[in-house]
Amino acid sequence: MKASVGGYARARDLAHAFDLLAAANGMGRVIAGGQSLVAALNLGLTAGDLLVDITGITDLRGVRVEGDHLLIGALTRHVDIGSDPLVAEHAPLLARAVPLIAHDAIRNRGTIGGSLAHADPAAEFPACILALGATLIVEGPAGRREVPAADFFVDVFETALDEGDILTGIAVPCIAADERHGIEEATRRAGDYAIVGLAGVRRAAGHRIVAFGAGPRPMLCGAAMAALDAGDLDAACAAIGGELDPPSDTQGSAAYRRHLAGVLLGRLAAQLGDPS
Amino acid sequence: MTDAFRNRIDLTFTVNGEQVEATVPAGRHLIDVLRLDLGLTGSHAGCEHGVCGACTVLVDGAPVRGCLTLAAQVQAAEVWTVEGLTDTGAVADLQAAFVARNALQCGYCTPGMLVAAKALVERETVPSRAEIREHMSGNYCRCTGYEAIVDAIETAARARAGEATE
Amino acid sequence: MTIRFDDPNRPNSYIGRTVPRPNAGKLVAGQGRYVDDITLPRMVHVAFVRSPHAHARIVSIDVGDAQAAKGVVRIVDGTEMATICTPWEGKLAHLQGMKTPPQHALAVDRVRYLGEPVVAVVARTRAEAEDAADLVVVDYDPLPAVTDLMTALDADTPIIHEGYEDNLCFRRTNEAGDVDGTFAGAHKVVEGWFKSGRHTGVTLEPRAIVADWKAGEAELTAHVSNQAPHMLQVLLAKHLDLPESRVRVVCGDVGGSFGVKVHVYPDEVATAALSKMLGRPVKFTADRLESFLSDIHARDHEATGRIALDADGRILGFDVDDWAAIGPYSIYPRTSAVEGLQVTNLIGGPYAFDHYRVRSSTVFQNKGICAQYRAVGHPVAVAITEGLVDKAAHEMGIDPVEFRRRNVIRDDAYPVSTVAGLKLEGLSHEKSLDALVEAMDYDALRAEQAELRAKGIHRGIGIASFIELTNPSPFMYGIGGARISAQDGCTVRMDPDGSVVALTGVTEQGQGTEAIMAQIVAEAVGIRPHMVRVVTGDTRVTPFGGGTWASRGAGIGGEAALRAGRALRDQILEVAASMLQGKAAALDIRDGVIVDAETGEDRLPIEEVGRIVYFRGDTLPPDLPRELMQTRHYITSNYPYAFTNGVQASLVEVDPDTGFVKLLKHWCVEDCGRIINPQLVDEQIRGGIVQGIGGALFEEVCYDAEGQMLNGSMADYLVPMSGEMPDMVIRHIETPTEEGALGAKGAGEAGTAGAPAAIMNAINDAIRPLGGEVTAMPFTPERILRALGRIRD
Q: Can you tell me where the transmembrane regions are (chain B) (predicted)?
């Protein structure tokens, strides 16, 4: 189908973007890399949107270290996350996730902010951000606020972003010396959305295991984490299925996804250096 | 609606090295602008939801999905399509390898395949067959079964690296 | 004079060689011209309002808002469309008892499948047509949908078509020998249940038509992405009430077809009718979402079967009950009964046995229409046959290769008439099995499999022998009254400089028609292939023919080209003999030069014949024939079909924790008779195998019980992509058909016919020791884990 949009405007800067969104009377829609939004437009899933293109706001692009955090601009493209030496050093989970996201041509345009704001429950970045315990920097007409990842993802395609808000960046705690990252997913074909996937971080303070494709949003798997913290991998693998709320669709039933999560957790634990 | 939002967008960008000015509907994707407004029918729309890769073109040097790129977003960008890449000879080796190996049948996927493959053969190392398969996994071909495409890309990559082909 | 194909040193020896495809260069340069690339002056675009229901009564249609929308040119509903376009029925007279109701270009009163076109909206651009189509308000009264195959004929299932007693489209039983007695007395009977997922073609180029009615010439030109231009010419003429000579169908570059584009589609006929109504060109290009809804589907089968064996592991008989679901209509003009019919013909195809019963039931559903798709019925029949054979071998404790060796029809037994009623001219199952075992190093693979098994790695090797039906005679459609041509023709014309134009009724979809026709004509005439320009796909100029389907291009179109080329050669030599005052029989044409046949000495450049004939004909004897243009048509007559055969093998690794299957390697040994271009044949086989793998592992059109499609996008309907596909080893045996001089049989469908069964057998070989078996395609990871009992609901 052909996209049916209400209009398009290029934002010069954030203030201009807020003005445009305000003027759009609820029909405003931020477009960045467009890799999810343009597909949705072409599929007719949304129509009449007034598109506010923020890709010209170059301040929102790039990666830097600030204190013990890695600050990632929302407009940083997947391809740049995958090749950035700071990301590789301080948040290797994100770098490892990149090759799993769709394909080269998508990664060349898609942005991390777009992926997080789109909040597809089967996407890799939202799960990684939650596993890392990152903070999302949200700016809006009322000012700037920081939203913990745990509060950001609300439901399928639904986030804590309010009308008129723009996600401008992500603050990721830099990896500690003894910290391990890992990601495992099951896809029928390279680059597909995962049937189910797990992003994991192992810190001195304990494990953070997040499942994707397994519920309405990335799911923090508390029971599995506790079992891993207790050194009981078998118990963790047995527990994880029960704490998910996976969909049943043509790629697999909820029961299959639950089973798969347990299998993937065993493989993730190996990545994280957990004793099997 | 505020004046700032427009239904039709004035664009200036370069396509295949030539400057282009066009006024396009706000929702029109790059591939339709290339095909409908500029008559560059070498790139194809296969699915218009970003899966098949038939619309893959270069924007600022990188392969992108033409169907997932709003034309309005390529203002001032540099776009290359199979037509321009053919004229400059930039993918002549890949094209020759595709023909020699019969790595195309109906040819509908081929322009997108060539653009995707270009990025791979330009890397400094020679990719393994598994890497070629993985890299090309976003480009659908119903005809060949892919093996000939992998062979052709492997041949071109080895030649670029100065390695003798088997 | 016959050509000594077995002598590689013969002059002009282009048949049998890999030569590049003449049209590949333009395609890699992006210079193909597919239908959607065509823009004509005053052209407008149509979008269709399609039914959102699987089954409903149309209460009312309100086009008021749509009519007022920007850019709208014309809106037409089914009632108006029916005034200029007659409905059709996909029936064949020889299929007794078959029924299907009239189908209209746009639905009238009732819709019977999701996506059925209801209203056509024509506007300046496709985007405007789509926007306006959204404003058309159709009031539907939903009716119960029939969506389950095995209960379609139950008494309490609603009947889709008023006036029918049931939902049965067609039923046929093919029985010979003493089936009941044989099974009752057999040493062993092995049973199985098999399911094939409904899948669809997903040609990368969607269906498309630009219809251009010119009132001044009273002629319709239709640029269509299609495989059978003359068929479409005849049918458009019939349903739009035009003389056939005033309908020109042009099929330029076609972006894949595989049978998807050999049928009559309501939206395409409606587009042609709209052009006639409007007097201007109208374009319809299906977008991908409507492709899933409106392209033909295929292979929606479920079957139970059994095989009877003697104590030595010899097959005594097959007994199969196969059910096929189609849509609410049988496809036009080929019918949707043929897939089931193929199953009744092909079960047990490679084997020698005496007792046979296959019943096929084809039933209506409120789903998309199922029809002929690459290797029609073969993957289903081969999966049932080879699934039973493998299970039998396992239960008898016989190696699956050895079991096949014991049971295939011997290579020296031909010609053979099988118990299923097939006339087989000459096949090579034994040689093919030998070549397969050697190519894959079967014993070493088995040893490796056992070693890895001990380490907890579960690999499987699957074998599937098969036969494939090619080069069809009128037995398939013609005798049933369908205007589908089984013959084909070729016209060759020498231009003054000695180059040749060859016009063929066979079309090009990428399989290499232009290349093989150039090779055949070059060899036949005695010139180099690059001196032959092949023209396909234009009913105004090409000889009337069937087009491309059922792997007939090389065998039938190629034979016509060979004969036309030889006729041109003879004519050139007759003129040359006159010019040289010698005998034509003493001359030959080699590399474009007329030579002394005995010594090879140059006598005359071929262009000198062209110069004299075309510009100085006055110097030739007045009664000398001088037609440097010759046409020949060819039809097979000794056999209803030229069967080919082959055997495939698949090596897989199954992860019993996730259910994922990794394809490690695939082999195919295939016998398509004379090979014209080895590379093109190999790539047909490879492409076909991967299409078969799609059906085996990935592809299934899923509907819910209400007839809503659950996975109608490329993100949800999984086609094979490069990452998961194996490398494939292809080998050949050549048993030429003796029907024509060329000896070629078809090669387009063998890969697809055998691959799914080979994959199924490989998976089961891997998981049988773990206590599982899968027989319902596609073999998704979940189905495999469920077979292993590893999922708790």
A: none
Task: End-to-end CA distance of chain A: give it in Å, rounded.
Answer: 50
Q: Are A11 and B73 in contact (CB under 8 A)?
A: no
Name chain B's partners: 3 or more CB pairs within 8 A: A, C
CATH class of the A180-272 domain in this structure: alpha beta
Facing C718 at nearest CB: one of A1, A3, A189: A189
B-chain residues within 8 Å CB-CB of A41?
Answer: 27
Tell me which residue has tokens 């939004």.
Answer: A37
Average pLDDT of the residues in A227-246: 97
Is the pTM higher than 0.90? The answer reads yes
HSE at residue A262, side-chain half, CA atoms within 13 A, is: 19
H runs (alpha helix) in C170-225: 179-185
- The answer as to whether C199 is a domain residue is no
> Which of B146, B149, B154 has the highest number of chain C CBs within 10 A, making it the mutation to test binding with C?
B146
**pLDDT value at B1 more than 60:** no
Please check whether residue B29 is in contact with residue A38, taking contact to mean a CB–CB distance below 8 angstroms: yes
CB-based contact A4 B59, cutoff 8 Å = no
C156 confidence band (pLDDT: 50, 70, 90): very high
By Cβ distance, the residue of A189, A255, A263 closest to C793 is: A255
Of C130, C131, C718, the CB nearest to A188: C718
In-domain check, residue C665 = yes
Q: Does this complex have an ipTM over 0.95?
A: yes
* Domain segments of chain A as ranges: 7-53, 60-173, 180-272
CATH 3.30.465.10 for domain A60-173:
yes
Residues C306, C189 contacting (CB under 8 angstroms): yes
Query: Quick check: A10 and B75 CB within 8 A?
Result: yes
Structure tokens at C143: 């009716």
Does A259 score more than 60 pLDDT?
yes
Range of the domain at C573: 24-32+487-634
What are the Cα distances from residue B101, in Å, to B144, C591, C749? 11, 25, 21
* CATH domain A7-53 topology: 3.30.43
Instruction: Identify the band that residue C1 occupies on the pLDDT scale cut at 50, 70 and 90.
Output: low
CA-based nearest distance C784→chain A, Å: 11
User: What is the distance between the alpha carbons of residues A85 and B45, in angstroms, rounded to a whole number?
Assistant: 36
pLDDT tens sequence across C655-666: 999 999 999 999
Cα distance between residue B142 and residue B139, in whole Å: 10
Q: Which two tokens stand for residue C462?
A: 């699957």
| Number of compact structural domains in chain C | 3
How do strand C247-250 and strand C219-224 relate by DSSP bridges? parallel
**Does residue C172 form part of some domain?**
no
Q: What distance in Å separates the CA atoms of residue A227 and residue A106, rounded to the nearest whole number?
A: 37
Listed residue (A130, A96, A104) closest to A212, CA to CA: A130
- For chain C, give the mean pLDDT: 97
CATH code at position C78: 3.90.1170.50
Phi-psi region of B126 (alpha: psi -120 to 50; beta: other; left: phi over 0): beta
Residue to substitute from B16, B132, B143, interface C, most C β-carbons within 10 A: B143
Within this chain, do residues C275 and C382 fall inside the same structural domain, yes or no? no
Residues C388 and C279 in one domain: no
pLDDT digits (tens, 9 = 90+) for C184-227: 999 999 999 999 999 999 999 999 999 999 999 999 999 999 99
**What domains sit in chain B, N to C, each tagged with a CATH number?**
8-81 (3.10.20.30), 91-160 (1.10.150.120)
Is the pLDDT at B3 greater than 60? The verdict is: no
Beta-carbon contacts of A230 under 8 Å, excluding residues fewer than 6 positions away, are: none
Q: Is C689 on the interface with B (CB under 8 A)?
A: yes
Residues C224 and C287 occupy one common structural domain: yes
Cβ-based contacts under 8 A for chains A and B = 118
Residue C177 belongs to some domain of the structure: no
